[in-house]
Amino acid sequence: MKFFCTAGPVTPEEHYCLPLATRFNEQELMLLIEQKKYFILHAPRQTGKTSMMINFARKLNQEGKYIALYVNIESGQAARGNFNMAMPIILQEFHECVSEQLPDQKKFFEIFYNLKEEGVPAGSLLATLLSRWSAKLDKPLVIFIDEIDCLVGDTLISALRQLRLGYAKRPQNFPQTACLIGLRDVRDYRIWSDVEHQIVLGGSAFNIKAESLRLADFTAIEVKELYLQHTQATGQKFIDDAIDYVFELTQGQPWLVNAIAYQACFKDVVDRSKAITKEDIEKAKEVLIKRRDTHLDVLVDRLHEPRVRNIIDAIITGIDTSVDFPIDDIQYVIDLGLVSKRENNLIIANPIYQEIIPRELTYSTQLTMPQQQSWYLKPDGGIDIPKLLRAFTDFFRENSDAWLEKFDYKEAGPHLLLMAFLQRIINGGGKIDREYALGRDRVDLLVFWKIPLCQPVRRSSKCEVGDYGGQDQKIVIELKIWRGPQSLAKGLSQTAEYMDTSNATEGHLVIFDKREKSWDEKIYNRQETFNNKTIIVWGM
Q: CA 63 to CA 33: how far, in whole Å?
């Protein structure tokens, strides 16, 4: 039985997958090879780069015009910047890959062992191996080098420069084409050289790049095609709005698309006679977020890099003034898959990442907050948001100075602290939708809370999980930073508008005042009316 791939390369014989030719323009790749170009293929993790290139190399070998080799050199990372140690490791990876993919290449093995005996310096090992091997071949050599940007410091510099060194000798005495595969474009490499005692830019170390290709995410149609394979194989259907919801949540990010479907189909709804619904997708999404899979952990690690943090910090607060971010930094966060450029705005790439980022940035804070959900439940089982926000006001007054002082995200700190407080209370009884983007000048939070049918508050009950009545609370909480008297007027207008579009049952506007004032001056709450909407304003 095939299944959805969530780890490692996609194998068409084992996994549901889209035809590889649909993921990239094969004619474009063939043209680059025919023109003897060196190029970059980059995309975020778990988007299909490795699967594509392994299968493309296999196809080239089957067609017989070229000799193609795929090699992953991630193992060289262990040697860090010590290229004298790393280069033999990388050459050993070439040896293993040739053994698996091109076992008839006797000349390669002869050259490989001769290099060991000759004691060729590490700084030219790779170039010498590729040069001698290419010279012995009766067909042009095409190589695909994966995880190139895992290499560190002088090891990465050495690898790039050795490939550049042999470029002029192609195709008779060096690979006709080399494709470097990684998370980032080579122009984003900023490499510290212990040898040269300076930052070396990837673009200067590898200035022979002709093209930089980025692997796109799935389209909505491709998500449907992928899921249809499961239906055809098992008979289990996906309700149309479930597929639409997957695309809405993931924006086609391949790992997320596969991981949600795997959780829903192979963990949660194993009875193939039952269709996968939108509710099943929501449940699977929550499981992924709470499980903190490797893909998500790796992504979150990037949030602590200064060039990433500066941009994400501004996006979370929705700063609407001009911010002079370096162009390379913007492209870097886009290449990582964290951020997308949509309608000339920078936004978090998809709603799942949008939810994960504030949760992860405040994970330990959520765990250690002395707060319990039961404290804020009303007799009918509803959530008492005014009581919750009063408690947060006290918490913020007592803890914000110490917390924000040690927190990297200075501008977004108050927003994140409130989101952590809410998550701690709402988790398990409702959910929080978040909307934020650069230029919006606010963060929109929409709290969904379902009231249990049997209203078990403050007394023992036999209510089952999910045994809810039809009455929902939809609570808008708008977050803003005080930037002048217009903040209140704009905030009331934005809150009322969001209440209207979300059909909210109540609305709150929280304004964080960072001016040098006493807490007694900053803290207040009062009721306002705007466009016939009742809004409680909280100053702090």
A: 14
The whole-number pLDDT of residue 294 equals 66
Distance between CA atoms of 306 and 323, rounded to whole angstroms?
A: 15
Q: What integer pLDDT is reported at residue 181 of this predicted model?
A: 95
Q: Is the dihedral of CA 258, 261, 267, 272 positive or negative?
A: negative
Contact 14, 2 (CB under 8 A): yes
Domain boundaries, the chain: 19-214, 220-291, 357-539
454 pLDDT band (50/70/90 cuts)?
low
Instruction: Give yes or no for a contact between 332 and 389, defined as CB atoms under 8 angstroms apart.
Output: no
State both tokens at 130: 């590729």
Across the range 166-188, mean pLDDT stands at: 92
* pLDDT tens by residue, 123-138: 999 999 999 999 999 9
In this prediction, residues 150-162 reach a mean pLDDT of 95
CATH dotted code for 19-214? 3.40.50.300
Q: Name the burial class of residue 134, with classes exposed (0-12), middle (13-18) and buried (19+) by CB atoms within 10 angstroms of its CB.
A: buried
Q: One fold for both 19-214 and 220-291? A: no
- Compute the distance between CA of residue 195 and CA of residue 57 in angstroms, rounded to an integer: 35
Nearest-Å Rg of the Cα atoms of the chain is: 27
pLDDT surpasses 80 at 359: yes
Of the candidates 325, 317, 401, 312, the one whose C-alpha atom is nearest the C-alpha of residue 356 is: 312
Peptide bond into 9 cis (omega under 30): no
Residue 298 near residue 150 (C-beta atoms within 8 A): no
The C-alpha atoms of residue 94 and residue 76 are separated, in whole angstroms, by 12
Residue owning tokens 């095609």? 225
Report the relative pairing of strands 339-342 and 345-348 from DSSP bridges.
antiparallel
What pTM did the predictor assign? 0.83
What Å distances lie between residue 174 and 31, 38, 64, CA to CA?
A: 18, 12, 18
Q: Which CATH class is domain 220-291?
A: mainly alpha
Does residue 151 surpass a pLDDT of 60? Answer: yes
**Exposure string (b/e) for 139-174, b if CB count within 10 Å is 16 or more?**
ebbbbbbbbbbbbbbbbbbbbbbbbbbbbeebbeeb
